[in-house]
Predict the 3D structure of the following.
Amino acid sequence: MLTMFLKRMLMAVPSLIGVVIVTFLLTRALPGDPAAYFAGPAASQEAIEQIRAKLGLDKPLIVQFGNYVNDLAHGDLGNSLTTGQPVGKEIKSRLPASAELTLLGLIVSMLVAVPLGILAATRPGSLIDHACRVISTAGVSLPVFFTGLILVYVFYYLLGWAPAPLGRLDVFFSPPPQVTGFYLIDSLIAGNLELFWSSLKQLVLPATTLAIFSLAPIARMTRASMLAVLASDFVRTARASGLSPHMVIVTYAFRNAMIPVVTTLGMVFSFLLGANVLVEKVFAWPGIGSFAVEALIASDFAPLQGFVLTMAIMYVALNLIIDILYGLIDPRVRLEA
Amino acid sequence: MTDLAAASRPSSGLAALLRHSRYVIAENRVTGFAFGLFLLIVLAAVFGPYIVPHDPLASDTAAALKPPSMKHWFGTDQIGRDVFSRVVVATRLDFFIAVASVALVFLMGGLAGVAAGFFGGWTDRIVGRIADTIMAFPLFVLAMGIVAALGNTVQNIILATAIVNFPLYARVARAEANVRREAGFVQAARLSGNGEFRIVLAQVLPNIMPIMIVQMSLTMGYAILNAAGLSFIGLGVRPPTAEWGIMVAEGAAFMVSGEWWIAFFPGLALMIAVFCFNLLGDGLRDIVDPQRRT
Amino acid sequence: MTAIPLLDIRDLTVEFQTRRGVVTAVQHVNLTIAKGETIGIVGESGSGKSVTSYAVMRILDRAGRIAEGAVMFTNIDVRQASEDDMRELRGREISMIFQNPRAALNPIRKVGRQIEDVLLEHVKAAPSEVTEKAIEILDQVRIARPRERYHAYPFELSGGMCQRVVIALALACRPQLLIADEPTTGLDVTTQKTVMELIVELTRARGMSTILITHDLGLAATYCDKVVVMEKGYVVETATARNIFTAPAHHYTRKLMRATPRPGASLRDLLPEEEAPASSAATVTKFPVADRKPLLVVEKLLKEYPRKGVGGMMSKFMRRGPAPEPKVFRAVDGISFAVNRGESVGLVGESGCGKSTTSTMVMRLIDKTDGTIMFDGEDIGEIPAKQFAKLPMRRRIQMVFQDPTDSLNPRFTAARAIADPILRLSDIRGSDAIRARCEELALQVGLPVELLDRFPHQLSGGQKARVGIARAIALKPDLIILDEPTAALDVSVQAVVLNLLQDLKESLGMSYLFVSHDLNVVRLLCDRVIVMKAGKIVEEGPTERVLFAPEAQYTRDLLAAIPHPTFEPEQADPARVAAGS
């Protein structure tokens, strides 16, 4: 078992190296003068030269790369022009907001999509099957920012059920004492139920938007995988042995069907992390996505670079966890080493 | 090869494909519907700018923020431009972006994948490394990074979309080529005196094409969403260009205050286009599945 | 004593809803099995034999249904029973084992647990003792070290062991009836024998009835009391095993009997009576024995493959079992043999013996590790495989593949497939000339010319095989390597194709290297036989000598493993009587 963990972690290293190299190249590949980009549109020639020296842009590429990696190791992602703050600090403080939103969206999505896929596969041709197929095809066609806007229009403007899309909390509330950074958890820890409800209400629409977005690929994969497994030889054996439908569907079919679904989760996460940026813009959510978008508008380059790097590293970590999970579920992978 | 194609009856080739397509469409109305919709989109893209009732760029502040009416079917936006005209004209740009991205990624990813799957060895390792490195990023985030680094142009959106889809294509092409690498008919082709390259081009590729075409149709949808998403956050297309994503961005603020039509119609157009490409992809998969041919 | 039969199938008709309408897979089938009886259901593909058994257990596909007739199991009406009742029956009173044992087991569940599931479901053991019971059952099916193997996953076990586990699952609850659907197809012939004997031993010991479904008439006659022959959904004959084998009544049964390769029959004898030529005398060979110079000479041929790395130091600490095997795997371990002009040499062995690797090297599709391959005096072993395709020498060695479907490009018509070698390696040019040559070849292999413009999925198995053969002989090669060319074909089609191959060999003066695991087929077609095991040659010599008086123990084991019914067939075989030999 330990070999498997170590092996998997070792396989993540080349990805990390690749990520660091690509982000480095991206920032140096800027058309025109990178120093000017980092200095900002309003900078004087003097300021640009200062930035150039500071970033080491006059040195050979290898030295620049060395400096870059060195800075990264110390958590130095440069400074934001608009706020003057270190980018690393900003990202750290904003990360929980994005994480809470994305995780909630994913959990809700899985709670709906997986049962939907299973039911569609076990009742082919039924209403649920058709509904699942329509949702899967339509779901991947919906632009996530459009869904968000429609939800806001219907549930806030027309029906008044949801609060205004103005961030994580209603203006009257202040955030709970920081434990995890997740308002839902922290407010419960602090015993503040009013705060909990307020955070939840603010979360509903954006999380639903993300959930709708990731619902389609998960439902589609679950259904396809379940169908394939239900048609397999070993399920036929299970049925011919007279095992109860519950045993056949849950213990024999579902566990095997989940294997490809877990691997799909990696792809779903990729989409979610991208969709996160769009949803944060629609709902004015103070996460790292909106941080990056605001920086873009102001031509503030360092936060964007830090954002891409952070997202990529998080994604590598997520994939590692999925890989390990996959190894735990499937003994063929676990025991081959 | 052409000698024999002339000699054999037209049970192969384009005539048979068309005949079979008609049969499948007759059976499966949804695919027929998708085909029809696709043609509509193509027509709008080609002829749109010539037949719209208003100039998509003409602003008329007096008529700003008017809801849908007989004069302005989709209403007007915040500086008085006709939303309907802009939506139709935007079809051309979005469709062009989709087609260009898909063509580019098919060439890059498809060919790289086939080579990697069929020849293995270093080709496989290099293509694999490139694909893995790209896939280490959340794809939309990488597209953001690329467009931000290279500059806000349509060409860069196309390039970024192609790069971001490269791993998927390469992987599909590689898997298909790999399966066929040791197939009996490939061995037989070697026995018949075919060199490796000729086998890839003349024997393996025709077998892979159908799956690649299905993949291309599905990616067209994704390419449009990608471009729209980038425009939504201010990367790529710039105002006053008519593009669905940027129109939704411009109309977003007004959603909250009740002027829904500015963002709604371009968003709806996006949805319909992507939905059409996805349906088409599913339908194409049915057509080209050789077991279904009679 | 007229006891109620255990299973009574009356006028059973099964239909399937397909895209092209209703297909009737089983028509008005009548069958009875008494307690303790073993019956075999024999038929070729499409005969409906498997569907009948699925109907008995009511595990038909969603699209299938019992349209007419009744199935009575003791006094239970299977057609009317509720799903709950059926579930009680399945596994507990009626069990089934299938082809492809590894796929029949849950890949992510320990085999011991899978047996427990069945025991617990049918309440045959209390939860506290079920593990012991499962281990006991594993022991009964002769799995060594059952306590350890309880924890094994299917991918860790061999094909034969997996089949034993499947048998264990089926017999765990001591059912009254066992249905075995092609249980030994795909297994090596020696494994086949041990599995069949295990099934027979266990079922007889428990007084169980058995239905054995197979395409192999010899297998059925050896192990069954009664045999039912099915064709295209109908039962054409039901008789005791002895009568079926010694005096088949229906002409289809006779056709099947004749087509089954068996000791004492010649190639012509395999064909249906109407098609057998007037004289069954051995056909004259084109090359008299004296002219048989060596065409292919292989010396000390070696092929090694590097084993998948088992990680360095880490794995040494983490290792569970004994030390891993050496770093290379010798598929072919220094063998030498020759094929003379006009000769047909058989290369036999079980899976993994290296025969296919040898033939692929001789074909120059893969490179050898060491040794020489001389063809007509030239050293072709030295030329790398990648370059060989373009040389004129390529014309002279061709191959007929095992799987006719896999060896034809799905996007090429039959004509295009046959024309491929002509286009690449011959001097014929011009669409008319090429088409003419294709039609000529089609005639030679008995393929109707209209079929030339069809795609592979529009052709039957036998037709595809003919296309493959036409392609192989297109360039008039000197040597053809045939890699199990009839393994995927029905036995009646096989008879025709084997005769075709023999005729072609004679008329075109070719030599054959015939790779097969089926000794009976080899006996019919080959002058000499080479027996391989684990990469080495175990025995070789003239066919008659090796197969009638084998010297090596392994050859004897192989021959003994072939199912042969033990009632004097030699004297009473009407086929041979009719042929006048």
